[in-house]
Every structure is written in C-alpha cells, then in structure tokens.
Design goal:
The structure holds two protein chains of two kinds.
Chain A (H helix, E strand, L loop, with lengths): L10 H12 L2 H22 L4 H23 L17 H4 L8 H10 L1 H10 L3 H7 L7 H15 L6 H10 L4 H7 L4 H22 L17 H6 E3 H8 L7 H15 L5 E5 L6 H13 L13 E5 L1 H7 L5 H16 L2 E5 L6 E4 L2 E3 L1 H10 L4 E5 L1 H10 L1 H5 L3 E3 L5 H19 L2 E2 L1 H14 L7 H10 L7 E2 L1 H12 L9 H8 L1 H6 L6 H15 L10 E6 L6 H11 L7 E5 L8 H5 L10 H7 L3 E6 L6 H13 L1 E3 L5 E3 L3 E7 L3 H9 L4 H14 L5 H4 L4 E4 L5 H19 L5 E4 L1 H11 L9 H18 L8 E4 L1 H8 L2 H10 L14
Parallel strand pairs in A: 2-7, 2-8, 3-4, 4-7, 9-10, 11-16, 11-17, 12-13, 13-16, 18-19
Antiparallel strand pairs in A: 1-3, 5-6, 14-15
Chain B lengths: L1 H9 L2 H20 L2 H6 L17 H47 L5 H11 L7
Helix pairs in contact in B: 2-4
Classes of the chains: A alpha/beta, B mainly alpha.
Chain lengths: 823, 127
C-alpha cells in the first residue's frame, strides 16, 4: 500500500481516536470511578447483597481501561509494517484527524499537541500562524505527508510528531522562505527545532527512569570523611540528589573519556583541565561525577561510585589563618581523602592553591609531592594563562600533571548547551526563551562579552536577557535590550519614531553646528543610516573615514557633532591624538590592558563600544601604530595586550590629517573645485610617501575638506553667537551683532594657516567683553537685547595687530578651542 | 474495536510489559541493598577502620593485624545481615511479582466472575 495514503479506518487510527476521547477528564475520572465502585461493592457485600459481586466485577473495567490508556494509548507505538501514513503519525495527532484531512485540519491538530505548541512558543510558528498558511484543499494534504516523510527520514525520527508536521506545513507553503525570513529564521533552524524538541522529550524520559546508584551499602567499604565534608563540596551527592541536565558535547566527551582513561589505568592519578573561563571545565567535572555514580555505565570497576569533592579554598583559609596551620590542615584533608579510598579531589580554579594573593595561598610545596606521587586522584582546573604562569614559576608542578586542553564550544555546541541550560533558567525566572533569542545571544555575546569563552559567554547573556522578557517570552529583542542596557549601545534595527526621524534628518541636525562640508556630513550620515537599518557589513566598523584638509575647517568638529547628535553626547567620542604615538613602543600603549591604562584605545572601546573613534593627525603616527590599526579598519577588531578581541564594529572611525593642506589651498586658490582635484590629491599623498596605499585603501571614504569662504565664516560667527546666547539665557539677555561687525570679526579671526580656529577667541573677546561691561554698568535689563556695533567691536579688538596677536596665541596642535567649524 | 483493542494489548504487549516491570523492580531492589557490592567487599575492613598499613615493631604490627581482622569480621557480619535482609526482600518481591504476572491473565475475567457470583447469589459469610 502507498505510504502516503491516510487510512482512517485502520486499527491504529481507531486506537488513536479512543485515546483522544479518553484523554483529559476521563483519564482522571477512570480511577475515581473504579475506587467508588469497589467501595460500593464492599458495602453491598457487607450488608449481604449479592449484587455487590456484579459491582465489584464492573469496577475492574475502568481500571483495565486506565491501564490500557496509560501503557499503550498515551504513547501509541508506531505501526509495525508502516503501510500507510497513519502507521507513522504520532497518536496525539492521529486521533484528531477527520476522514479526509485537509492541511488546515492538520494545522488544527498540530496546534493542540506538545510538538506544535513547542514550535509556537520557541519559533513563533503557533496554531494561528499554521492555520493562516495551511490550505483547505484536501488534495494538498498529500504534499504535507510527503514533506513530513522526508523530514522524518532526514531527522532519523521513528514517528511523525507534531513538530515534524509543523515544519512540513511551513515547507509546503509556496513562499515559505520569505515567511521564515519574516521570523528571522532559515530552513535549517526548523530542523534544529525538531531535534531540540526531541531532545527535551528524551531528557524527560531519561529522568523518569529509575537510577542505579549503588544502594545503601555503597560506601561501607570506604572511610569516613568528616574533614572533607567540612571543607569540600560533594558534587556527587548533589548530582545523586537532583540529577544533572547535560548535553554530551563532542569536545566534552573526549575530555571525559580522557579523564576515565587516566583514572582507570595505572600512572599518575591527576589531571589538569586547562581552558579559558566559561569553556565548561566545571561542567565536565559534574558530568564525570555523574558517570561514576551510574551503575549502568561501562567504566572501570575501580572507578565506580567514586565521589568527587571540590575543595573550598576560602573555607580552608579561614579555618587555618596561622603560619603552617593551612599546610597542616590541607595534609589532613588529603590524607583523609586518600585513606577513604573513594575520593577524587578537585581543585577548581587551582591557581588559588598555587599563588599568594587575596583569597589564595601558595601550597606548591605541600601539593607537589602528592601530585608527583600520583596516588591520590586529583583534578585541577585553570585557564591557559595561569597554567603557563604556574609552569614558569614551578616547572616541576606542570610536569607532574596530565594536561587536558578544553577549547571553546562552536556555535552548534553552544546552542545545544544553552538549550539544556535554559530548562533551569526558565523554571527559575518563569519565562520561555525563543530560538531566535538563543541565536541572538550567541551572536551578540561573541561580539560584546569579552571575559568568558563559549558557551559561558552566551549563557551569561541569555540569563541576563530573561529580565527583559515581553509577557514571559524572551525574544531576540529581549537579548538586544539586555546588551543595550548593559553596555549602553544600540544593536537592533532602528525602530523608535524619534530615532528614525533623527536618522532621516541627520545632515540637518549636524549642520546645526557645522557649516558646509556637505560631502563629509553626507557620507557619515549614510554610514549610520545603513548601520541602523541593518544593511551594513556586520564584520566591520559602521564606517571608516579619512578626513583630509587644512586646520580649522571642521574635521574634528564633524566627529564631535556626530557623537553629540547621534551617539548621545561628546563624551561618546574616543579621541586619540596620534602625534603622541610616534614611537614603535607606543603600540603597547595603544592596546594596553584597561586595568593598567584606562586611556588606551582598546580599554576605551571596551567601555564604550558604541562611539565615534577619532584618530587625530594620523600622519604623525609611527608606521607600526598604523599597521596595528589596519585590523581595526578592516575587520573592526583589535586584540589588546591580553589577546582579548575588542570589537570596534559599533564605532564610526574617523581619522584626520593635515597632510597636503598647502596643496589643497593651492588648488582652491587656482580656482579648482574639490571634486576636480580630490583624486589627484590623494595620488599625490601616496606618491609623496605621506600615506601607504594599503592604508588608504582600508577607509570606506577619503573626504577632502576645503577652506571656508568668507560667507561661510559669517555663518560660523552666527553659530558662535548662538552658543553665547545660550549661555546668556540664564541672565535673560541676548546679544545681536551687526552685519558689518561680523564681517570685521571674520577679517580679524580668520587666518589662512589656521582656518577658523582663532575665530572663537576673537568673537568671544569682542562680544563677551562688551556684554560684560554693559551688564556691570547696569545698562542691561533682563529681557533686553544687547546690540553690538562695528565701532564697539573695533574698540574692543583695538587694531588688526591685536587680533593677529590673539590668533597667534592659538597653536594648531593644542586641544581644540571648539569652534563650530574649526577643529 | 474497543474490547478487541484492550484484550489484544492485555494478553500481548501489556503482559510482556508486566514481566519486564517485575524484572526491573527486582533489579532496583538488588541495587538498593547493594547485593553485588556487598558480596564483592564481604571481607573488606568496615569503613576503612584500622585498614591502613602500620610500620613498627612486631608487637605493633601484630596488634594492627588483629585490629584489621576485627574490622573485617565486623564488616562481614554487617554485610551478611544486610545481604540476608536484601535477599529475603528480593525473594518476596519475586514471589509477589510472579503472582502478579500470573493473575494478570485472569483480571479481564473478573467482571464475568462477578456476574456469575451475583447470579448464583453466593455470600461466603452467610452460607
């Protein structure tokens, strides 16, 4: 018979319908009815009524039905020969299907069973969703069966469950890839979902089976351990009591086999698990302890029922504060463990026992002979760096250890661990995690969590995302919120009306404090819009720009304006004056650890991953510094001195340079437009060896700034006056400068070499001094406007000579006297 | 279909499952009383008391030897006691389980028995 035919009248389908009608209230009522009937029968027989026998006989019927329901119907086994689709369908689905089911009928049934509900909660593919996409045409049902069979074969499942049918219904939808894209999923994710649901089902089965843990006399042949119980944590006992939910990762399985291999054979009975924090070293020890406790495991007899104790360094230290006392105590504890014959000692974060410090003590002299003798079984865990440090100080110690390296988990493994871990998290926090949330936690933790390795870093983010649940559901959005709140960055796509408005009008907002330089403003605004619309390359910074041009034309000001307008304030700018990085050794300062130098580039980016990075006067940096920055510009990452990967992928990197400023001025004076000479100018910079081509190629855009015209400088003065009026607003007065006075200020404040840089000081001196004098003389009343004339300005500035003197006081490399266009 | 379904399960997979359950329960009881372990460690020193090696003059070594011997004897006595308790329990469980498996075959007949007894009006305490 054709496997894709649905046989409604088959035996299995009939049983499934009986199952369906018995589930729910009847399932609970049957034993109650049986008990009531038996009690009645007893009563009747007691009073001598023979009908009691009949009632007792009838009481057996509901009991038999209940047993049948529990042991066969509830988990209806698949048909032996699987001749038609009903032989393979899960009982809970089969019992709900009508004679000629349409895809919509299947969708209805799927929405009511655990597999379908799993997809609803975890993937957003719920009953309503499936019903909307499912056809009502019965002739389409065969496509669903066909797809379900295919999925069943691909996943190696024995039956077609609710989750398989949910995926099949999605896949038969004509534009299903578009549908999945809307849910931020791809086809492979659906298959993973089926495996996930199946894994949870298996876990439940595993935990419902009785455990063989040795029984009451298990430890009678082994010694008493009062000291160990006081100073250690018996993880075997914890596991025996509550069980362990764990997934067997390939990487961990290998380490576990090595642990059992080493302890199961002769030789030094110690192991050092070496790997970064968060990689799962402690989890491996827990899994190892669980294996030893399981009587059904195939492990050497000598290892069965051995107990793993994690020594608590802090309680040992507090119990033995005196000199020599600790050594004495640790010897007693280890002797007890050795004499008990069933103890495996674990020194978690073993560096606490091998180095002097707060909460740690160097016990190398005591532990080394024990480790070298190798008779007491010991497991040590530590990270690679500590292992190397200990090895450097005490090579004999490292030589005495059998090392097992534990590497970070890959994406598949991390997701598997997260899926197991979230069972507890969901129970404790009363939330449900969506699959998309797990993927987002992996993606974002990889970029932003630096102090842990996978899977620990993803789990850390996943747990913190639980607080940002939406109606009990933890979505990708919750994870984004968690990281945004923790690190104060923006990782999602712009969704708020305010932010969208800001992005669309970014140029306008920047021009409120910048005059002209339209092209530069345009390219940075475009980069930011691309980033927030989610269409940029995620593996690079938001944008990398090189601003070329003379001093005082607005290069630095643009970076500041951007930080202020979009990144949340000028404080969001990481500024490095590269004229301070002119030696080869300065590379070390650039990537220093935050604990030693909080001003290093990597330390600042770690604190503020969402910011504008301004690399001022880049042409002055040492070539080695520029080489170090290449990776930042290329991949958006920089490794710090501790080899941690610091992300710059949420920064806009702006490098500025005055190189060739005279050439730009020359071109402009000869009447060229920027567009006409820009390319040639960059070529000149390369040919004159001021920049290497491979360095310039790393930037998204090279933007040349041109000197400002007189008209633009008048606008600059207006912006400065705007700032002054803002300050005066507290005194309820404002200032207005006559047009001819402004032109005079432009003449006095502009220097062809320094651009508009001296302008602020000239304007401040002229305007603020006048205002101050008038206010002190009492001629200004609150609410009045102070009119400043050309004569007043001339009087204040005295002469052109005096103005030039003021201008000369301002040197270009000095920290910026922040003019609206000048830097 | 309903009655045929119940009966085919009762005398087929249901009965087999009953036998498996009985075996599982016997294995769990054996594990609980650590019967295998007790046999293997019958003469081991109890809780490793006086089990360590002792160096020194012959008199001290002799004393240690007798201490160890006593520890082993006490251990063996306790273990034998538990083994006996365990074996008796296992035997009882086996008997109950076997009776349960045999009775399983007759349970579906009980309604018929009830009808028959009702029809003949048999009352043991009144006859």
């Amino acid at each position: 018979m054709d496997q894709l035919v649905f046989d409604y009248s088959g035996h299995r389908a009939a049983k499934a319908r009986i199952r369906q009608s018995l589930s729910g209230i009847w399932e609970r009522l049957l034993p109650v009815v049986a008990i009531l009937l038996l009690l009645s029968a007893g009563g009747l027989l007691y009073i001598g009524a023979a009908i009691g026998w009949l009632v007792a006989g009838i009481a057996i019927v509901p009991l038999i039905i209940k047993l049948w329901y529990t042991h066969e119907l509830k988990e209806l086994p698949i048909g032996k020969d699987a001749r038609s689709i009903d032989d393979l369908l899960a009982g809970d689905i089969l019992g709900q299907l009508p004679k000629k089911p349409t895809p919509k009928d299947i969708a209805n049934a799927v929405g009511r069973v655990p597999g379908g509900q799993f997809f609803g909660a975890r993937f957003g593919i719920g009953a309503g969703f499936l019903q909307n996409i499912a056809s009502e045409d019965a002739s389409q049902t065969i496509n669903v069966w066909q797809e379900a069979m295919l999925i069943k074969e691909q996943t190696g499942l024995s039956e077609i469950s609710g989750s398989v049918l949910a995926v099949a219904l999605v896949r038969v939808f004509p534009n299903y890839e578009g549908l999945l894209a809307h849910l931020h999923l791809d086809d492979e994710d659906l298959t993973k979902g089926i495996h996930w649901q199946n894994h949870i089902h298996d876990l439940v089965l595993k935990h419902s089976k009785p455990k063989r843990t040795g029984g009451i006399a298990r430890d009678w042949s082994f010694g008493y351990i009062p000291l160990l119980t006081r100073f250690g944590q018996n993880i075997s006992e914890q596991i025996a009591r509550s069980g362990l939910i764990s997934v067997e990762l390939e990487a961990h399985k290998e380490a576990l086999d090595q642990l059992i291999g080493t302890f199961g054979t002769a030789g030094r009975q110690n192991i050092a698990l070496v790997g970064p924090a968060g990689v799962g070293k402690t989890t491996i020890i827990h899994a190892f302890a669980e294996r030893l406790l399981d009587a059904t495991m195939k492990i050497p007899e000598d290892l069965k029922f051995r107990q793993v104790f994690i020594l608590d360094a802090s309680s040992l230290l507090s119990a033995a504060p005196g000199r020599g006392e600790l050594e004495n105590l640790i010897m007693q504890v280890l002797s007890e463990a050795y004499n008990a014959k069933n103890i495996i000692i674990c020194l978690d974060n073993a560096q606490l026992f091998f180095e002097e410090g707060v909460g740690s003590v160097d016990l190398s002299n005591v532990l080394l002979p024990i480790l070298e003798a190798g008779r007491l079984r010991m497991i040590l865990t530590m990270d690679e760096q500590r292992y190397l440090q200990i090895g450097q100080r005490n090579p004999a110690l490292v030589n005495a250890l059998n090392r097992i390296s534990i590497g970070p988990a890959n994406k598949e493994e991390t997701l598997a661990v997260m899926q197991d871990q979230l069972i507890m998290t969901e129970f404790q926090q009363k939330v449900t995690f969506m699959y998309q949330a797990l993927q987002e936690a992996y993606r974002l933790s990889e970029r932003y969590v630096h102090d842990l390795a996978m899977p620990g870093r993803a789990i850390k983010l996943m747990e913190s995302a639980a607080r940002y649940n939406e109606n009990g559901l933890v979505t990708a959005n919750s994870v984004q919120k968690a990281i945004e709140q923790t690190l104060d960055i923006k990782v999602g796509v712009a969704s708020g009306e305010d932010e969208r408005e800001k992005l669309l009008n970014l140029e306008e907002l920047i021009h409120k404090r910048m005059i002209n330089q339209t092209r530069a403003v345009g390219v940075v605004s475009d980069a930011l819009r691309r980033a927030r619309a989610g269409v940029r390359n995620q593996n690079r910074p938001i944008g990398t720009f090189l601003f070329l041009g003379p001093t005082g034309v607005g290069k630095t000001e643009l970076a500041k304006a951007l930080a202020d307008v979009y990144f949340g304030g000028e404080g969001r700018m990481i500024r490095l004056d590269l004229n301070e990085y002119v030696r080869s050794e300065d590379v070390t300062r650039l990537i220093a650890d935050g604990a030693d130098d909080p001003t290093s580039l990597t330390a600042q980016a770690m604190k503020q991953p969402f910011s504008v990075v301004l690399l001022d006067e880049i042409e002055k940096a040492h070539p080695n510094v520029l080489t170090t920055l290449l990776q930042l510009l290329d991949e958006g990452i920089l490794r710090d001195i501790k080899n941690r990967e610091i992300s710059f992928r949420d920064t806009i990197v702006i490098a500025t340079s005055n190189a060739g400023a005279d050439r730009i001025r020359e071109y402009i004076e000869r009447g060229y437009q920027l567009e006409q000479f820009e390319k040639q100018f960059v070529d000149e910079l390369i040919s004159s060896n001021q920049f290497r081509p491979e360095f310039l190629n790393r930037f998204d855009e090279i933007v040349t700034f041109r000197p400002l015209s007189k008209e633009e400088l008048v606008q600059v003065i207006d912006l400065i006056l705007g700032g002054i009026n803002k300050t005066l607003a507290l005194q309820k007065v404002s200032v207005s400068v006559a047009q001819d006075a402004k032109l005079f200020l432009v003449d006095q404040g502009y220097d062809p070499r320094l651009g508009a840089r001296p302008m602020r000081r000239v304007v401040q001196r002229a305007v603020e001094n006048t205002v101050a004098k008038q206010m002190l003389s009492g001629s200004v009343q609150p609410g009045s406007v102070i009119e400043i004339t050309l004569e007043q300005v001339q009087q204040i500035l005295g002469s052109e000579q005096q103005a030039n003197q003021i201008a000369a006081e301002t040197n270009p490399p000095l920290p910026p006297a922040s003019t609206p266009t000048a830097s | 279909m309903f009655i045929a379904g119940i009966l085919s399960w009762w005398y087929g997979p249901g009965w087999r499952e009953r036998v498996l359950k009985m075996r599982e329960s016997l294995a769990s009881t054996m594990d609980y009383f650590s019967v295998g372990l007790l046999l293997k460690t019958l003469f081991s020193p109890f809780r490793q008391i006086s089990a360590g090696k002792v160096n020194g003059p012959l008199s001290i070594q002799m004393r240690a030897f007798f201490d160890r011997l006593i520890s082993r004897l006490i251990g063996a006595m306790i273990r034998i006691t538990i083994m006996i308790v365990g074996l008796v329990t296992i035997f009882l469980f086996a008997v109950i389980g076997t009776v349960g498996v045999i009775l399983w075959a007759f349970i579906p007949l009980l309604p018929l028995v009830g009808v028959t007894l009702w029809l003949i009006g048999w009352m043991p305490w009144t006859s």
